[in-house]
Amino acid sequence: MQDNHAEARRSLLAELDAEVAETARWLGVARLDAAVRDAIAMVPRHEFVPRWEWPHAWENRPLAIGHNQTISQPYIVAAMTQMLRLEPGARVLEIGTGCGYQAAVLACVAAEVWSVERIPELAEAAAARLARLGYANVHVRRGDGALGWPEAAPFDGILVTAAARDIPPDLVDQLAPGGRMVVPVGPGGREQVLTLVTRDKAGHIGIEPGLPVAFVPLITDR
Ligand code: SAH
Q1: What are the tens digits of pLDDT across the range 120-130?
Q2: Which end of the chain is more exposed for a tag (fewer CB within 10 A), N or C?
Q3: What is the pTM of this model?
Q4: What distances in angstroms separate CA 136 from CA 54, 112, 128, one per listed residue?
Q5: Catalytic residue check, 72
Q6: Of these residues, 27, 40, 57, 72, which one is catalytic?
Q7: Residue 202 Cα, ligand 1 centroid: separation in angstroms?
Q8: What is the pLDDT of residues 183-215, one digit of tens each?
């Protein structure tokens, strides 16, 4: 099958390599792990955006997906996935499925992914899209992600892809020993701090503020 996006994919990967090297002090590495880089190369980003955005699907920027929501910038997806340091057998929770792009990337580097989305239409569309594209190891449900997915916990990695005012305590509880959570902390729509939360084998929680980012808000009743 001809890949109409081949050139765009190549230039996106070159751009990501340069941006990762520039931000190495935040990411703790100067290069993406091969598994993360391959996932970005393989997941067909154009399938996750509306038709009219196809010409821009492989650009390194967020795009509108309807319902006032966005598909995240590829660099941010790569950076957050990298920060989780996932092993191939990892069980991962994502909060804020949106179109399902980040979930697909996680599905390539982890064993199983659970993803929670607040907006019913987005949750349904993402679940159908991920199934159609063959990502059989992703489970999507509608709900308040601040509550996590307790029945499937604990998780080796948790990614929050919406801005939380504070680190959601239920998510910290659902982190496995040795697990890592990446969450943008701060007011939605303005600059937030991408924060790494770790639970060590003894159960101690570590919190490290990092990269400045801009996400839509996490909307929770909690
Ligand atoms: N992960 C997406 C980007 C998500 S944008 C990607 O791969 O591109 C943030 C998403 O979080 C939106 O779809 C928004 O509806 C959702 N969201 C906001 N608050 C939420 C909450 N409390 N629980 C679950 N999802 C939430």
Answers
A1: 999 999 999 99
A2: N
A3: 0.97
A4: 24, 9, 11
A5: yes
A6: 72
A7: 31
A8: 999 988 789 999 999 999 999 999 999 999 999
